[in-house]
Amino acid sequence: MSSQKVLVIAYYFPPMGLSGVQRTLKFVKYLPEFGWQPTVLTTNSGSYYAYDNTLITELDDSVKIYRTEEKQKKKFSFPSTIVQKLGRFVNGLIRQPDSKIGWKKKAIALAEKIIEEEKPDVIFSTAPPFTSHLVAAELADKYEIPLVLDYRDQWYGNPFNSMPTMFHKHYNKKLEEGVLYKSKKIIVISREQKEKLLKNYNLLQHNDINIVTHGYDREDFENISPNKQDNEFIITHSGLFQDNRNPKPFFKAFKKLVDKHGDKVKLRLVGLMRKNHLRQIKSLKIENNIELVGNVSHSQAVEYLINSDVLWILQNDDVRTPGKLYEYFGAKKPILATMPKSYMRDLAVESGIALTADPTDSEDIYKALSTYYELWKNGALPKGNQDFTTQFDRKHLTEKLSEILATTTIL
Q: Do the bridges between strand 122-127 and strand 4-9 make them parallel or antiparallel, or are there none, so unpaired?
């Protein structure tokens, strides 16, 4: 039986790094096992601030990757909080639905050549950026190909998507309504996202939207030998502190733990760091107990997770759905979730290996840290539950995606 073909439209794709590429990469990696041959339309990496050249090696040689030409290609430094917020506001004034709207024309031109050559059975678009959905909807309409939209984040109503005036908000809602109307199926990360779409758009029916969560790739965690020192209590945070995430309350709580237990405790920060956060560390005089790992390959990041006692995740909103939490599940290590009440915090609690704390309350965070320290000292830290983590296996999630794709080709 020959495979069906799917055109995957994804602005963020390796060699770009960070969490935004993981979901799409793993779908592309495993789809051939479920009867789907993916072809990828993406950028030529453009200007970005984090790359991981190891990720592309996970894909079979049969996967064709087409890249639009970009005039500029250079690595940016990680922007400060102020620069990132200002940039988002300025882009919101002049570029809608997002700063990647200039990619649309080039993407459509290349996609038309791909469609003529590959003749895909389905178009699958993942966003953000939501420009990808505009590209996909136009192509699906022109060539009468079923369209599946994948939402990694909310579009209309997302406070992190800059829509500075009522005109911008109305315009974005109309744009989103247009692509939703042209889609056969919609995929979201969580039930909350599904409910928001149903509330915002009366044209949608319950069965139009499927939930496929973020996940972890079991293969990433195989063949990693733990080599952690038993005499150190290591807390690890992996990934970026997004512009609304302030780690200072945690740093203050960690300082209190350091003052009490000294060199036995260590905080490991894996990923890019903002200068203002580095200044916070210096002002609290906790540099000697913090390991700044910097940006590393995904496989190295997973190794750091395995060689930790507790994994820390910070979130200051109930909108975003950070993929790192699911990788923490895969590591089967205790989790400290400094999060407000949200779907993600409830999910962390459901794992059975998480303590939670208010992300702005240093005392609340310190209590959780102290609890974990005492458990570590007594050799009683909890371990992950395989029955719980299996539901987030990337291969299992890709099988679910393959079934959704198949429903769109049934006449």
A: parallel
Query: Rounded to 5, what percent of the chain is helix, strand, coil?
Result: 45, 20, 35
- Token duo for residue 1: 């039986």
CATH number of the domain bearing residue 207: 3.40.50.2000
Question: In 319-410, where does DSSP find H-type helix?
Answer: 324-331, 343-350, 362-377, 386-390, 394-407
Cα separation, 390 vs 351, in Å, equals 11
What span, in angstroms and rounded, lies between the C-alpha atoms of 298 and 302?
6
Residue 76's pLDDT band, with cuts at 50, 70 and 90, is low
Q: What is residue 75's DSSP assignment?
A: B
pTM for this predicted structure: 0.93
How far is it, in rounded angstroms, from Cα 247 to Cα 254?
10
Strand order in the sheet with 122-127: 64-67, 36-42, 4-9, 122-127, 147-151, 185-188, 209-211
Sheet holding 265-270, edge to edge: 290-294, 265-270, 233-238, 310-314, 335-338, 354-357
Q: Who has greater pLDDT, 250 or 98?
A: 250
pLDDT value, residue 385: 86
Residue 175 sits in the same domain as residue 52: yes
Q: How does the average pLDDT of the chain come out, rounded?
A: 92
E runs forming strands in 198-298:
209-211, 233-238, 265-270, 290-294
What is the domain range of residue 24?
A: 4-215+393-407
Q: Please, are residues 136 and 110 in contact by the beta-carbon 8 Å criterion? A: no
